[in-house]
Fold L-lactate permease.
Amino acid sequence: MLVLLSILPILSIFFFLVVLRWSARKGMFFSFIITVLIAYFGWQMGAVSITAASLKGVMTALEVGVIVFGAVLLLNVLKESGAVDTIRASFTSISPDRRVQAIIVAWLFGTFLEGAAGWGAPATIVGPLLIALGFPALAAVMIALMLQSTPVSYGAVGTPILVGVNTSLENQPVVDSYISANGQEMSSFVFDVGAQVSIFHAIVGLFVPLLMSAMLTKFFGKNRSFREGFAVWPFAIFAGLAFVIPFSLVANFLGPEFPSLLGGLIGMAIVIPLAKKGFLMPKDTFDFEPRETWQKSWFSDIAAEVKPARNISMIKAWMPYVLVALLLVVTRIEALGVRALVSSWVVSFENILGTGIDHSLTPFMIPGVVFIVVALFTGVLHRLDGKGMASAFKVSGKTIVAAMAALIVSVPLVQVFINSGINDGGFDSMPLVLAQGAANMFGDSWPLISPAIGALGAFAAGSNTVSNMMFGLFQFGVADQIGANPLYIVALQAVGGAAGNMICVHNVVAASAAAGLIGKEGTLISRLLIPTTFYLILAGAVGYVWVNGLGLNIGLFLIIAILAVIFSMILRSQKRAETN
C-alpha cells in the first residue's frame, strides 16, 4: 500500500500535465496538494514538518529563480544590443550544406547557450536563428529541441546537478551514512556525480550531431532518407568529439558549472575555423527543395525577426560570456583565494520550525549574481540605451514570473516528497519506499530503467533540475537496495533527465512559440521520440555494463546492436554516394 501511495505524486503530475494538458502552474499546484495529503494521512507526517519542508522548497525555488533570471537577462541584453545578430551572421559563411549548418548552430552554439542559460532558452534562440538561415520552421524547431539533451545536465551553469541532485540527497540518513563510510562530504559526492554524468553523456552524445543530420534529411529532404544524413558522418563525429571531450574533461577537473559552457566554446573554436577551410566537409551539398514545394505545416506563422544590424564586433559579442566563464572559474577554484572571500557570507536556516530540516545558501556564489553583474556591464560595453536595457529586464521578468509560477509549487512538492521520512509512523520517506518496490521488481536490471525514470520526470515536470530533485533519492535508494554503486545510478538519473528535455511539453511549447509554430507540438514530440528513445536505450545499456561489468549481458548486446545499426547506415550512405 505504501509503495502504491508513494507513486501517486508522480502519477498525478503526469496526469495533470500530460493527460489533461494543464499548465505547469496549475498541474503542479494540484499535485502538491495531493502530495501533502498523502504525506499527512498516509505517512503520518506532521503539519509542522510539511510546512518546514515546503519553506525549504520555496527558498530553493527562489535560489533557482535568481539563476534563471540572471542567465536569461544576459541573453536578452545581447539580443537587444544586436550581439546575437553578429553571432548569427558569422554562421552564414561557414558552409551552404544544411546538415553542416544544423550541426554547428544547434549542436555547438546551442550547447554553449544551454550551459550559459538553460531552462529551454537555447531552443528558443536556435530555432529562429535556423529559420533566418533558410530552414523550414518545423525543421528548425525539431533540430533546436534535439540539442536539449547532452548539455542539459549542466544547464544554467550546473543547476541540475548543484541544485537538483544536491537538494534531493542532502540531510538524508541513508545518503549521509554512505558518504561518511566512503570518507566523503556531500559536496565531493555531488562533484563526482557531475563527473560521472559527463562520461555517460559523452558516450551517447557523441552521436547526437549525426542524429540531427539524419532527422533533418529524413523528414525534410527530397528523398526522405536517413542515409543522406548519415553521409555527413565524418564531420558529425568530429563535431561530436570536439564538444564531448572538453565537456567531459571540464566536468572531471573543474566541476558541474562549466562543462556545457566551456565545451561549447571550445567546440566552436575547434570546428568553425576548420569547417571554413573545408575540413571533413561532405562532397555533395544538401539543401531543401524550393520554398514553393514545402508542405504547409513547415512554415512559421510569423516571419523570422531580423533587426537592423548594429556595429557590434565579434569580440564584443562574445566578451560577456567569456567574462561569465572567467568569473565563475575564478570564484570556484580555491587556490586562487577568491572563493574563500565570496563564500564567507552564508545565510543559514537551521532546524526550521524545530523539525531538523536545514537550508543554507551563499548569495555571492549563486551563478545568477555573476550573470546579472555581467549583463549590467554588457549594457555599458555595447552602449545599449535605457530603452533597450529596460526591454531586456521586462522580457526577462516575464520569463522568470512564468518559471517561478511553476517552481514555487514544484520544489516544495519535491521537498515534502523527499522529507516524508520525518513522520510519526516510523516509515521510510516516499522515495525510499518507492525504491524498495522498484528494486524488488527490476533487481540488477535497474540501470537499464534508470535513465527512463529521469526522462519521465523531465517530460512531466519540464525540468531536469526538478526531475533530479524528485528522483535523486529514489535512484540512490534503488542502488542501495540492489547493491549497486549509487554514484552510477544517480548519474544515470541525471542523464535520463537531460534526454527527456527533448520531448518535455514546456520546451516544445516554448520553442514552437518562439518560431511561430502553432499546433505542431504533437508532430514534434512524435518525431523527437526517435532520438529520445535512442538516448535512453544506449545510456541504459552503457550504465548496465558500467554497473555489472563487461560480459555477455543484455547491456553489451544492446550496445553492439545500436552501434551495428549506426555503422550499417554509414556504410549504406557511402555506397549510395559512390554510385552517384
User: Anything to note?
Assistant: The longest strand covers residues 347-349. The chain has a mean pLDDT of 87. Residues 421 and 429 are 4 Å apart (CA to CA). The chain has one domain: 1-295+314-578.
